[in-house]
Amino acid sequence: MENLNHNMNTNNNEELKIAASFDIPYVQHLNHEAKIEQTLPDFAHDKEFLHNLYRNMLLTRLFDKKAISLQRTGKMGTYPSVLGQEAICVATGALLEKEDIFLPYYRDIGTMFMRGVKMEEVLAYWGGDERGSDFQNPDVKHDFPFCVPIAGQCLHAAGVAAAVKYKGEKKCVLVSLGDGATSKGDFYESINVAGAWQLPLVTVIHNNQWAISVPRKLQTSSYTLAQKGIAAGLESIQVDGNDIIALCAVLKYAIEQARQQRPILIEAISYRMGDHTTADDASRYRPASELDSAKIKDPISRLKNFMEQNSYWNEELETKLLNEITNKINQAVETYLNMEKPKPTTMFDYLYKELPEAYQDQYQELENL
Predict the structure, then answer these.
(1) 276 catalytic, yes or no?
(2) Of the listed 276, 286, 302, 312, which one is catalytic?
(3) Strand 214-215 and strand 210-211: pairing?
(4) Cα–Cα distance between 3 and 124 in angstroms, integer?
(5) Which of 30, 72, 90, 366 pairs as cysteine with 344 (C-beta 3.0–4.6 A)?
(6) How many separate domains does the chain show?
């Protein structure tokens, strides 16, 4: 600003007027030691609510571990770990209502499970079976399946939110994406139309610090990712993505605002503690010391410590929960491994409403295999 004043030949005692200025609030209730940083919301004293959050975070982590094992033993295809980001997924699943519409990116298994997607469906999807995207639970039929192309789901979300507003429905549309997606035009276009049309859209950025092998600092010079929403006219908030209590508080507010056609952008600060996918080796580009620092902020340990400090949790409950979750995951794996193999023709069935004539012979050949 000093250089600008000088170059414009203004007097030494005269400063340029400010056209506009903006603030990005940061929300954190529990720090990495589970100590209170900000007055807790009422739900933070609801033992059953906290138990549900913890149960679903632990389920997400153990499922994640099992999925990686299945891939490593050749029983599933490439899989993207959600290790370290469980709190964002679970808080989203806890706050969305059944009638709301969720558009995930490829690490959102925690939210999808809480919405009613079956674990075996997720395994089937990453096992190359299109039936994994055909959710059998009628309560989740209106949600979207995984979106692997980066930021493509943002455009879908804007379209869905426009339809919801057009119909006069009091629903929230929530889209999830990684930090790398915020560098894509699809992201910018979606938030721009959300602001211009005042759509019922919540955009949640999982800032896990890495866009595959590109670190956050090399991807963008933006001081925060949240401030990217300011240009689109969106209220924008940054939150500790490892503090599930802060996440629930922010998401509760954001979803309520979206129902009133006030779109909001949330940047949840977390860390991808696993590889980008099972086809990646993060040790080739990520310092070990950085990963060690991230482990200290682990979201699951943080909530567990808080519950133990308040006598909401103990080792007996922990053992019981671990056994329950392990059995549930094993049953889902068994179901997945015993699913009837999809027919080769499904590559056409799920792509075309009416098969083009050029593919008729190929379809017939596959059908006769």
Answers:
(1) yes
(2) 276
(3) antiparallel
(4) 59
(5) 366
(6) 1
The residue annotated as part of the active site, out of 6, 72, 285, 352, is 285
The pLDDT value given to residue 105: 98
Query: Is residue 112 assigned to a domain?
Result: yes
Tell me if residue 285 is catalytic: yes
Helix, strand, coil shares, percent, the chain, to 5: 50, 10, 40
Instruction: Look at the pTM and tell me if it is higher than 0.85.
Output: yes
User: How do residues 64-94 score in pLDDT, each as one tens digit?
Assistant: 999 999 999 999 999 999 999 999 999 999 9
- B/e letters for 250-288, b = 16+ CB within 10 Å, e = fewer, are bbebbbebbbebbbbbbbbbbbbbbbbbbebebeeebee
Is the residue at 16 inside a domain?
no
In a domain, 242, yes or no: yes
Please name the residues in contact with 354: beta carbons below 8 A apart, sequence gap of 6 or more.
none
d(CA 187, CA 193): 10
Active-site pick, 29, 32, 272, 302? 272
Domain that holds residue 290: 23-364
Mean pLDDT calculated for residue range 143-148 = 97
The string of pLDDT tens digits covering residues 311-359 is 999 999 999 999 999 999 999 999 999 999 988 888 888 788 899 999 9
Residue 111 · residue 160 · CB < 8 Å: no
Give me the phi and psi of 283, to 5 degrees please. Answer: -65, -15
- Distance of alpha carbon 89 from alpha carbon 115, whole angstroms: 11
In a domain, 269, yes or no: yes
Tokens standing for residue 158: 């804007």
